[in-house]
Amino acid sequence: MIEVSLQVRPAVPQDQHQIANLMFFESHVHRHLDWRAPLEWLGSPFYWVAEENGRVLAALACPQDPERVAWVRLFAHARQLPLDDAWTTLWNAAQKDIEQQGGATVALIAMHQWLSDLLIKHGFSNKQNIIMLKWEGTDFPEQPLIEGVTVRTMQSSDLPAVAELDASAFMPLWQNPLDALEKALPQATSATVVEDGQGLVGYQISTANPFGVHLARLAVRPDAQRRGLGSLIVTDLIRRLKDKHINRLTVNTQSDNHASLALYEKMGFVITGEKFPVYCFSVSPSR
User: Fold this and answer.
1) What is the spatial distance between Cα 39 and Cα 20, in angstroms, rounded to a whole number?
2) Cα-flanking dihedrals φ and ψ of residue 9, to 5°?
3) Nearest CA to 55 among 124, 9, 88?
4) First-to-last CA distance in the chain?
5) CA 126, CA 120: separation in Å to the nearest integer?
6) CATH classification of 132-277, choosing from 3.30.10.20, 2.70.70.10, 3.40.630.30, 3.40.50.300?
7) Lower CB density within 10 Å: C or N end of the chain?
8) Residue 39, by phi and psi: left (phi above 0), alpha (psi -120 to 50) or beta?
9) pLDDT digits (tens, 9 = 90+) for 45-91
10) What fold does the segment set 7-123 form as a domain?
């Protein structure tokens, strides 16, 4: 084993090339499913590298967005540096900085078993699981009729209201702040809002992939729920996709979100069997 002497420091934009090399050429890499690529977070607080003699050997990014919620957007390390050494070095620095800045919930969706094993070893808790569902053109759902409600294409001017709705519909861990939505809209293959006489009551944002379309976000304002708006949004999306001859739609949701699961299964979605654990670690503020 090669002995290394690591120094940890905040990542800076000049590290882009070395971090990109870790991301694209190393085997132990975690990238959060995000509207922003990991390199776009460079320069943000809570983004660190571990280096030796000017060479970046590992990187960890968990910027807060929204406040007090720090998703791990990137973890990667060079193969010459053992996995546990890379994580321990960066995670110790991360905890100290987060403590000093008021604390936060650090969260991560583990896509690999090696990452789950590492997180459990370091005290993270598996709070819930993300499960995948798919619709593949069978059992076409009927369009619900809801008087006084319209569905239209989302505009950039809608985003402040969409962000406000999103914050009301989800706990902080799962919220999409305005800056995230501003990144999401240009990447969407379909984005719609639902309105009634009181204003915006729901929305969806979907993205294209080589196999079809993924429903990345669906939200209904809490005081407008139980009116069939979720079904309306999904049915409208499916009709838009059918017009483009797209017959595969996927979605993911939390394993304990029973209302969401019931909605999708009612509309002909089936669980694929894919499951990804969500791990959390609460970093308390320093006294």
Assistant:
1) 8
2) -150, 165
3) 9
4) 39
5) 8
6) 3.40.630.30
7) C
8) alpha
9) 999 999 999 999 999 999 998 899 999 999 999 999 999 999 999 99
10) Aminopeptidase (3.40.630)
